[in-house]
Amino acid sequence: MEEEKKYKKVSYWSVVWSQFKKNKIALWGLGAIVLLLLQAIYSPFLSLDVPIVYSIDGKMHCPFLLELFNKNRFENTVDILFNAVMVVSPLLVALWFVCKKIFSISTNKTFVIFIAFVILVCFAASIVSEKLVKIGNRKYKEEIAIAKSEGKKVSAIFPLMKWSYKETDLEGSNPQAPSAKHLLGTDSTGRDVLTRMLYGTRISMTIGVVAVSIYMLIGIVLGALAGYFGGAIDIWISRLIEVVICFPTFFLILTLAAFIEKRTVFHVMILIGVVSWTGVARLVRGEFLRQRGMDYVQAAIALGISRAKIIFTHILPNAMGPILVSATFGIASAILTESSLSFLGLGDPTAPSWGGILNIGRQQGKLWLILAPGFAIFFVVSVFNLVGEAIRDAMDPRLRQ
Amino acid sequence: MWTYITKRILWMIPTFFAISLIIFLILNLAPGKPGGTLASGAEGQEASGSSRESYRVFKSQFNLDKPVLFNTRYALSDEQVEKCLNNYANESGKVPMKEVIKSQELLEDYGQYSIPSLIRILKKSEGNQKFRAVVLETLLQNAQRYPINAYAEHLDEKTKQINNEIDSENEKIRTFACAKDASPQEQEKAAKKWYAWYKEHEDRFKYSFGQKIGIFFTDTRFFKYWASLIRFDFGVSHIDKKPVMGKILSKLQYSLCLSVPAVIFAYIISVPLGVFSAVKQNSKFDRICAVILFMLYSLPSFFVATILLYFFSQGGDFLKIFPTGGFQSPSVDSLTTWEKTKDIIWHIILPLICMTYGSFASLSRYARTGMLDVIRSDYVRTARAKGLSEFVVVVKHAMRNGMIPIITLLGTLLPVIIGGSVIIEYIFGIPGMGQLSITSIYNRDYNMIMGIQLISAILVLIGILISDLLYALVDPRISFK
Amino acid sequence: MHKENLGEKLVSYAFFILLFIFVIFNIVQMNNVEKRYIEIRDKLEDLEKRGISRSSTVTTSSVSNAPVKQKTTVKYLHPEVKNFLSDETFKIRLPETKQGGILHRWMPADPKSFNTIVSNDGTLNQYVNSYVNSESFATRSLDNPDKWVKCLADRIEITNDYKEYTIYLKQGVKWHTPKVDWKSGKYDWLKGDHELTAKDVKFTVDVIKNPQVECPALRNYYEDLEKVEIIDDYTVVFKWKKKTYNSLSFTVGFCPIPEFIYAYDSDGKPFEKSVFGLKFNNHWYNMKSIGCGPYEFVSYVQGASLVLKRFEDYYGEKPAIDEIDYQIFPDQKQNLLKIKSRDLDFGVLYPTDYREEIMNGNPSSPFKNGEIINKTYDEMVYTYFGWNMEHKILKDKKVRWALSYALNLDYMLKDIFLDLGERTTGPIYIKSSGYDKSLEPIPFDLDRAAEMLNQAGWVDTDGDGTRDKILDGKKTDLEFTMLTTSGSPEWDAAQTIYKEDLQKIGVKMNISEVDWAVMQKKLEGKDFDAMGGAWGTAWDADPYQIWHSSQASIPNSSNHISYRNPEADKIIEKMRNTFDQNERNKLSKEFHRIIYEDQPYTFMFARKRCAVWWNNLERVHFMLLRPHDDSRPWYFSNDKPVKR
Lengths: 401, 481, 644
Fold this sequence. Notes:
The structure holds three protein chains of three kinds. Chain B is an all-alpha fold. In chain B, 68% of the residues lie in helices and 0% in strands. Chain B has two domains: 35-229, no CATH class; 244-474, MetI-like (MetI-like fold), CATH 1.10.3720.10. Chain B contains 20 helices and no strands. Chain B is elongated. The model of chain C is unreliable at 52-68 (pLDDT under 50). In chain C, the strands form six sheets. In chain C, strands 11, 12, 13, 16, 17, 18 and 19 form a seven-stranded mixed beta sheet that branches. A four-stranded mixed beta sheet of chain C has the order 1-10-9-8, covered by helices on one side. By secondary structure, chain C is α+β, with helices and mostly antiparallel strands. At the B-C interface, helix 2, helix 4, helix 7 and helix 14 of B face helix 1, helix 3, helix 5, helix 8 and helix 9 of C.
């Protein structure tokens, strides 16, 4: 019984995983990524100017849930999306466990479908809620303070900090130095820096993941086509790659970003994605060229399996290793590119981006405005690089003991 | 080998053409107007009048009045022109201002091609006083021709003569002008003059098939740009009308002063470091080194630059050792060469650190892996077995092969060396290529942006070629095919 | 290792060491030689400055063949008319003024061209032209700008219908010597003294009227100029088609350019007539400056320096300072440091630096211990938020007033703009006599703003936090986009605060930050809801271009917000035909009140600047007119130590 299991379970990925697990630092890195993601998702619990629950004269109010989808409080679609994930995810995770317990489904395929389902639901939820939720912009803090001064019985549970990322605090000369009220001080308009940092995680994470997905998609499709079919298609696609590789990438992104009038985070993602797919395309093409000659592909062709199926179900999974590594590094560099753009003032002006905070810090010459975002960028970039490196080492048979 | 190089260089031409086409399209189809005469100070100076006319001169100087890729204006229909005229006249007052301006620009751009249609419309529009005024105004503006080759240094006699003819004709045309609120009779009088003039020059506006093909392909922005590009002429900057190439060359010295030492230092530090940590693989030194290099590799350069400025520059709060920016002191005139050198070094130390650390982090990792690959190989083991000292083995035998990948990287660094770093130059205020690029973006200086993009593209092409060649030169296993 | 090898190595090592020593020795030697050279050069320059010329340079006066013209007596065409110009003027030089010294100043950007006709460059106007080539027939008096005083002209006669102006030029006004490579012999045609004559005036008018020349704004001003007649070498007549106040100020304030250089190509041949305009736009002398002002152009190095020297043949009162040395660099931080290290004698601080150094400065710093003196002065600029009057929401006057009430200008002035400004209520320059001081700045009052919006029918009916109203049968949210240029941290902060305040009263403001090129395109096409900007004003500005309704429907006009008010139009037109200063002031006040009541702009501040200078610079005086920091009356007192 035990032996049978052993033989069954040793797939390529489980070997890689067992290698990966040996690298303790990388495991920490992976943990940090998960933590960052959780922090990004649950930022409203860490800092928001809306009480989770409050009661005035014994009457309970719970505006928190609805406020999460209030366009007046969260300007960015990215925020609404993350809030949707925050609300929906616990329910779905619970559902997942129930399904697993009752129906005992646990194959990888269903897992992927499940994830896709979660993302879809979140998208739908965020879009629908934007249209439905109309609560105006109530100032709960002021309301509670007024009620208190009128001598009513008031109790409220707030998130850890009581600031929203765009609320301006004008009760002091801004930028304010770090204090008990603002743990990391404020920026030049009196917005709480720590809160902006927390919400900035969302922006960075989204930029990394989405930009990389965009260029992965372009790169994989073009590379696969070139590598699998060869011939004229290969020549043309290779030419295209050669041309695009010659573009001065960062300068081109700068130019295009300057030309877009109402820049949003999504524009930045698309720009990064559209310009930097060449590396992946070359990688995939090479991998496909290598795999195409292998026996299993020849066998599949002989069996009369359709080309699309061969590409996507046979070759691609085998070529996935290097792609995954380059994606992990890609996320790091996409985050860097975005923060450089914001630093130069060519990012999304409404989004609380780390690069933007750093730029204000440079202009104002204030240490807290420089160090906090700088180290945040450094941390995220190095964590992703670390994990990418660990995966690469784990997949390198030469380093396997 | 020479055939290989020639072949590669020949391949570069179509690649370069494709690159220029793509960048050209992106720039020309992007929203926003090119800068130039319009982009004066950022905050409105004293209210300026209509800058239309000078914008027209500006457009014709930079061929912006021509279509981007193909010109079909020889077949301009009356309806098209009339629609624009209607929009421009805006008699109902309901046409949005955006449309009015678009029509106005189109009418200007049609230039000579619109003359026959305009004359026909003029004939048709009798009685409609307001509309006719617009037609006459457009006619007056479009019928005047620009002198040929006006910006050339020296003109030959024939061109001069043609220009004089054009000038006298323009002068004659200007006498046809009639005021905007002229009475229908006056308008009719002006119209009569126009008909007579048109009759005289009618054959100028009839195009043969060959001419049409010529116009279709050659009277376009892209063709005009390429026609000068073939002579390595990147045009002149929209802002100060100085040649793009000259401006780039004048900025080059600053970028080179920064990037060449940066690359040299990066190599000087990274090669021994990489070799040493490869030789002492898995030692404490190797591990610490790896961690530090890894951290440096992930540190964003703009963060480091800001921090360095904050702590070590005179503008900061801590150690006031270095200047806050710039390439040299303003009082360079009264310094000797030696003092000037010292002054420049004093200025570029901080930016140099920023430029060096990132590249040496990645270079030493390359050096380490390159050495690791070699050090396990048989011939190194043989050398050791011969009883040679470890130093000789490493330096003489292993390093020669182990450094191949890092040497070939030199080719790909070429664009970085010449192009400089946008962010570092921006933060430290060094007037090099990077700052030139960013200011040209802010100013919408299309020719400048085009020039910089194309030059960096050429550099990438050459860099790839060089690194391939280097690879083949140092590694005899690779042959030229 | 073999022994021979060792020997060889030793020899080669020794060789390298020797070489190294040699190189070091050479460097030291060269350094000394160069130092001597620089010393000698500086001394020579010093001598030259004192009037002793070097024998090697070709000075123009020595080759001058032109006969010195005798002063001719002038016959007045209209002797019965009183001279329009008055004599009294601000004294540039006082008896105690000490001559000498070099003034080091900062210039933030390179000029695009030094040609005053073609270039409409703010930097150039402020830093160079006022010294070199903006000498006009007459200028507004520096202490009482309502009066005109003599400059290039001695006498101006104006006919009663204000259509014909006779100008009598001063005699003996010399143009600066062109800065060209005399030794090459290529420029021999330029040799000789050149005097300002009526020919130059006529030439300048011809240039402005040439349709190929890139000076649309200037040409627009002189559109009604019918013709210019030369009576004799020193007398010209300007004839205008219409009687307008502008024709007065543009005739009297006319600046001629030298014909002897601008009409010719670099080889001394006159330009082909057919391409004259285009050649003029890219004239070979465009990167150098020439005029007849108190300072002459010496040298310009792009991105580094610009040097002006006192013009010894200047016809008027010569300033005390010998040389003005501009250092060109864009970074404002460096500017501050160079003031501190005394590389610059005079500078203007940006708000952030102002806060760090003057407001929160260390008491031992030179800014606080009296070594560097600071003073704020008024700049002729006002900032504003402009509302597009054709926008369906903003065309309602009540809404605009409510938006003005919701702008927390007092906080912004105190905390963001650091009191470097003054609340202003209208488009008139706050210090001019046409500004109505009785109009109160609008206070920050959110409740009042909300109430006004309620009155205007804007109520939040659907509870989404934004007020709405049925407009043209469609429910519309009270939402608009504010268009501003990017790059100024102060504006960024102001907008963010405004946005948050507006949200409190249920108004949604989106911010669109674009760069200047895009902004211009949008303003031209009137493709915006609201915009933030600044206008530079003049002493007695003509409001026609910004406020007249005839400019409202023209694309590309300065009235980009499409302001139309028949009452205002009437006053503007009346002002254009009024020549009496008191009457003009009265009209201007009336106009100010109308604009205030309409609130087409929410006026923010009349901007101020903080200037700082080292205390050995004396008589630093700020002019009421642009350029405010004209250094002509300043001088160095040498009794205080100069550390440089």
